[in-house]
Amino acid sequence: MHSFGYRANALLTVAVTILALMCAIASLSDNFNSPTPSAQVQVLNINWFQKHQDGNDEISLTLNISANLQSLFTWNTKQVFVFLAAEYETPMNSLNQVSLWDGIIPAKEHAKFWIHTSNKYRFIDQGSNLRGKDFNLTLHWHVMPKTGKMFADKIVMSGYRLPQDYR
Amino acid sequence: MGFIKDAMQPAGSLRARPLLTQIITLEEDPLNLTQGDILFLHMNEDPIRAGDIVVFNIKGKTIPVVHRVIQVHEQQNNKEIYVLTKGDINKKDDRLGGIYGSGQLWLQRQHIMGRAIGFLPYEGWVTIVLTENPIVKYVLIGALSLVLITSKDRGAKQNSRLV
């Protein structure tokens, strides 16, 4: 009972158990954080409109995205993945979500930002529904922890509309 | 949740086994996971939405892929779903980047095996070492057997005292 082998084994077991417990506690501590994020998006311009050969509409936009996600960061946060999606309904689809832009926020200092950008990913509809379409712009974020459960949330900004006619 | 470990190959993909936890053994991974992390997966009836990290299988390819959903088109009524995915650090989405099968434009419900919900860093290294160096496995088993064989039988000793 007192050989080196037994002691080493006992030590290792306790160490691993404690490590697992610490990871669990670290992850649970994230539940005490009540974040207060804010965001605002302006559509500055619809750059162009295109109808593809297969009948799908595509548009290009220029956006001004500003947000303060600093309250999402805790000591157990590795990074925050943030993306902006256009969300709308069409006769064929009850929900369309198209990601227009995304970014990775590596640290709290970078979590308060504004950017002026055209859409990073193509805004292509499944069909020809983009003229005069009302849509929401939703800023989603996924908090990736150093250890434990990932969690996600969003801010929905509604009231955007695409023009009926394009030059 | 099941507990299964796979050896991985570079290029952002995993070898498939139909259970729920997988170890990343890549050097470079789009989700900023590093080699040796354990990723927890779960599948439920919640609808797939943009931002979810999903694990999916491509017909004809043996290796499932763990990427993020960037587009969702969900139909009225029959609720069929069309999903486009992309690795976070990839420039191209999976359709343009050649990850989907040729001619495949979308993922659908049946392709998606699970959703990532959390992860533990570094705990996967033991399995990686064991899988990539089978010698270590044999040595460990050999050593454990030796310990077992050479340990004294305490039960017998107690009994002999009572006599």
TrEMBL record, chain A:
<keyword id="KW-0812">Transmembrane</keyword>
<dbReference type="GO" id="GO:0005787">
    <property type="term" value="C:signal peptidase complex"/>
</dbReference>
<comment type="similarity">
    <text>Belongs to the SPCS3 family.</text>
</comment>
<comment type="function">
    <text>Essential component of the signal peptidase complex (SPC) which catalyzes the cleavage of N-terminal signal sequences from nascent proteins as they are translocated into the lumen of the endoplasmic reticulum. Essential for the SPC catalytic activity, possibly by stabilizing and positioning the active center of the complex close to the lumenal surface.</text>
</comment>
<dbReference type="GO" id="GO:0045047">
    <property type="term" value="P:protein targeting to ER"/>
</dbReference>
<keyword id="KW-0472">Membrane</keyword>
<keyword id="KW-1133">Transmembrane helix</keyword>
<dbReference type="InterPro" id="IPR007653">
    <property type="entry name" value="SPC3"/>
</dbReference>
<dbReference type="Pfam" id="PF04573">
    <property type="entry name" value="SPC22"/>
</dbReference>
<dbReference type="GO" id="GO:0006465">
    <property type="term" value="P:signal peptide processing"/>
</dbReference>
<keyword id="KW-0735">Signal-anchor</keyword>
<protein>
    <recommendedName>
        <fullName>Signal peptidase complex subunit 3</fullName>
    </recommendedName>
</protein>
<keyword id="KW-0256">Endoplasmic reticulum</keyword>
From TrEMBL, chain B:
<dbReference type="InterPro" id="IPR001733">
    <property type="entry name" value="Peptidase_S26B"/>
</dbReference>
<dbReference type="GO" id="GO:0005787">
    <property type="term" value="C:signal peptidase complex"/>
</dbReference>
<dbReference type="InterPro" id="IPR019533">
    <property type="entry name" value="Peptidase_S26"/>
</dbReference>
<dbReference type="GO" id="GO:0006465">
    <property type="term" value="P:signal peptide processing"/>
</dbReference>
<dbReference type="GO" id="GO:0004252">
    <property type="term" value="F:serine-type endopeptidase activity"/>
</dbReference>
<comment type="function">
    <text>Catalytic component of the signal peptidase complex (SPC) which catalyzes the cleavage of N-terminal signal sequences from nascent proteins as they are translocated into the lumen of the endoplasmic reticulum. Specifically cleaves N-terminal signal peptides that contain a hydrophobic alpha-helix (h-region) shorter than 18-20 amino acids.</text>
</comment>
<protein>
    <recommendedName>
        <fullName>Signal peptidase complex catalytic subunit SEC11</fullName>
    </recommendedName>
</protein>
